[in-house]
Amino acid sequence: MITTLSGAEVWNLSTLSAACVGIIINTFHDDGEPLIASMAFSGIAFALTFSLIRWLGDVFMKANLKGRDMSKPKKIEIPETMGAVCAVVYLLTIIIFIPFPFYKDIVAATSGGGNEESVIGPQFVQTGRSLHRFPHNKLASYLSAILSLQSVVLLGIGDDLFDIRWRHKLFIPAFASIPMLVVYFVDYGVTNVVVPVQLEQYLGKMVNLGWLYYAYMAAIAIFCPNSINILAGINGIEVSQSLVIGGLLLANDALSLYVAPSTPFPHPATDPHLFSIYLLLPFMGVSMALWWHNWYPAKVFVGDTYCYFAGMVFAIVGILGHFSKTLLLLFIPQIINFIYSAPQLFRLIPCPRHRLPRFNARSGLLEPSVIQWQQPPPKPVALLMDMLANLPLPLLKVEKNSTGEVVKSTNLTILNLWLVWFGPKREDRLATELILMQALCGVLGLFVRHQLALWVFRQDNRE
Ligand code: UD1
Ligand code: MG
């Protein structure tokens, strides 16, 4: 592991940082254009994360934050939990960014910010400054996002340090989402869902889900972080899938903002989408720096911290941006992987500590990894496995002994399934193909959301 920056890297990163600082200072001359400032902050976050990952590699190794790369001929140890670096830089960035989206409001609501000479009239003596004009609700959303994220990052670091049990860590994101759900309740509170045209005659135009809607949002907060963590185990896959989801969410925001100005009044979707952009841009910045080091052949591992952190960023923008259903369309591979993994997650089929594909040292390729059955599986499970293995497109591979009992079967992850379908592959090839599939599913998801939605709903609200 290289622990210093090369001369060219120092030059490039310093130039990038200096340009970004210049842009941020410049935004003060105008009215503090927050979108431009957010981009510049993301550039600085990239440079900082990139450098810190290099500098801290050895420190992490010494603190025993390391892992063995299992898909290489020499199973060397490299630093793990580098997602913690991303998460810390990210949190600092969005905290420093707080004044920017509220700059105009601060100027309007206080006598400061270039408004010093205005005198507070006697009518304001009781109320002080006209702070009621300040959008406290927007600030509350932003702060609750930070609070929820911090809780999840704590969980991630705890998991990387102590390997928390599955059943315990499953629910922590649900608790972490409470601040955000409270803000949702007070600020927005919509728990109605639009009914597809075909079902309107039975259910009416809208159905109020009430508290169930909050349970649904908590479920999203549990699902997003965990689903990224279980679609993992080959170099680069965790960060790449997050970059694709983040990129498509940004495209969706841009699309919504592009359409919004055509209305004569500020479109209601504008603010949530801007909010989403402010949270996603620095996420892309820190993730790209991590990607650089985690792509094949990996120099660092991302750790569970990154998976939880990334998943929670998505859950937060989906929920507070009011587009949680669109978000799920971008999680199609993760949803399929979760459903496919369910028999192992719920212990119908044994679940080993690791399910990542097996490295064949002779060929240098990855093959589907298998479970060794100590005792033959119970009858119904064996029957189900037989059925899945004999489909025209087999969903798993089994190996039987001479008496017809299952002795081996492939682990149920889509990484293994891909190898069952298309044969052994090099690690980077497998990662690239899966990421292309993720991107394709996402683009298709957004297309369905914006084009085909009109078949089942009366209008596309572009939210
Ligand atoms: C989850 C998966 C597990 C998978 C693991 C890999 C479930 C229920 N759990 O467990 O099946 O094996 O992620 O991340 O699906 N590693 C590599 N190469 C990589 C990335 C990771 O060899 O590119 C290995 C390293 O030894 C690393 C370890 O995986 O130390 C990290 O595993 P960890 O994140 O702790 O596993 P879980 O998230 O608990
Ligand atoms: Mg993990």
Automatic annotation (TrEMBL):
Cofactor(s) of this protein: Mg(2+)
Pathway linked to the protein: Protein modification; protein glycosylation
GO biological process terms on file: dolichol-linked oligosaccharide biosynthetic process
Keywords: Endoplasmic reticulum, Glycosyltransferase, Magnesium, Membrane, Metal-binding, Transferase, Transmembrane, Transmembrane helix
Organism expressing this protein natively: Alectoria fallacina
Name the record gives this protein: UDP-N-acetylglucosamine--dolichyl-phosphate N-acetylglucosaminephosphotransferase
MF GO annotations: glycosyltransferase activity; metal ion binding; UDP-N-acetylglucosamine-dolichyl-phosphate N-acetylglucosaminephosphotransferase activity
Cellular localisation: Endoplasmic reticulum membrane
GO cellular component, one term: endoplasmic reticulum membrane
Function: UDP-N-acetylglucosamine--dolichyl-phosphate N-acetylglucosaminephosphotransferase that operates in the biosynthetic pathway of dolichol-linked oligosaccharides, the glycan precursors employed in protein asparagine (N)-glycosylation. The assembly of dolichol-linked oligosaccharides begins on the cytosolic side of the endoplasmic reticulum membrane and finishes in its lumen. The sequential addition of sugars to dolichol pyrophosphate produces dolichol-linked oligosaccharides containing fourteen sugars, including two GlcNAcs, nine mannoses and three glucoses.
Family: Belongs to the glycosyltransferase 4 family.
Protein EC: 2.7.8.15
Keyword Transmembrane helix: yes
Pfam families: Glycos_transf_4
Enzymatic reactions: a di-trans,poly-cis-dolichyl phosphate + UDP-N-acetyl-alpha-D-glucosamine = an N-acetyl-alpha-D-glucosaminyl-diphospho-di-trans,poly-cis-dolichol + UMP
Major localization class: endoplasmic reticulum
Keyword flag Transmembrane: yes
Membrane topology: Multi-pass membrane protein
TM helices/strands, residue ranges: 12-29, 35-57, 78-100, 139-158, 170-191, 211-231, 243-261, 273-293, 305-323, 329-349
Database matches in CDD domains: GT_GPT_euk
Gene: ALG7
Principal EC category: transferase
